[in-house]
């Protein structure tokens, strides 16, 4: 029973890896613990979004990932 955490963009560089598998179920506090302090600090920023099972969460602190889910950490997108 596992959840896959995907690190995208600059969050991948901070994490030092592209993906991480953790025990399911996974909630917000478990996510912060799993990703380490540097990534957790960035996740606290309002502009960083979290998607679970392909859907961006309106309130990322209500994360409730189940076995087989992918949790994508989405950094802010810049553009013009």
Mean pLDDT: 95
Head-to-tail CA distance between termini: 41 Å
Please provide the count of β strands.
7
What form results from the Cα inertia axes?
Answer: globular
The level of helicity is 25-40%
CATH-defined fold name = Ubiquitin-like (UB roll)
Name the strands of the widest sheet in spatial order: 2-1-7-4-5
Radius of gyration using CA atoms only: 12 Å
Q: What's the CATH class label?
A: Alpha Beta
CATH superfamily: Beta-grasp domain
What is the total domain count?
1
Order of helices and strands: EHEEHHEEEE
* Helix count, DSSP H or I runs of 4 or more residues: 3
Beta-strand fraction estimate: 25-35%
The class by helix and strand makeup works out as alpha+beta
Q: Please summarize the sheet with the most strands.
A: 5 strands, mixed
Low-pLDDT segments, ≥5 res: none
Supply the CATH architecture. Answer: Roll
Pfam families: ThiS
InterPro entries: Beta-grasp_dom_sf, Mopterin_synth/thiamin_S_b, ThiS/MoaD-like
Organism: Qipengyuania profundimaris
Protein name: MoaD/ThiS family protein
Written description of the protein model:
- This protein has 80 residues and is of the alpha+beta class.
- It has a single domain (2-74), classed as Ubiquitin-like (UB roll) (Roll), CATH 3.10.20.
- 26% of the residues lie in helices and 32% in strands.
- It is built from 3 helices and 7 strands; from the N terminus they run E-H-E-E-H-H-E-E-E-E.
- It has a 5-stranded mixed beta sheet with strand order 2-1-7-4-5. Strands 3-6 form a two-stranded antiparallel sheet.
- A hairpin with a 2-residue loop joins strand 4 (49-52) and strand 5.
- Helix 2 (28-35) packs across helix 3 (37-43).
- The longest helix has 8 residues, at 28-35.
- The radius of gyration is 12 Å and the shape is globular.
- It starts with a strand and ends in a 6-residue tail after the last strand.
- The mean pLDDT is 95.
- It comes from Qipengyuania profundimaris.
- This is MoaD/ThiS family protein.
- InterPro entries: Beta-grasp_dom_sf, Mopterin_synth/thiamin_S_b, ThiS/MoaD-like.
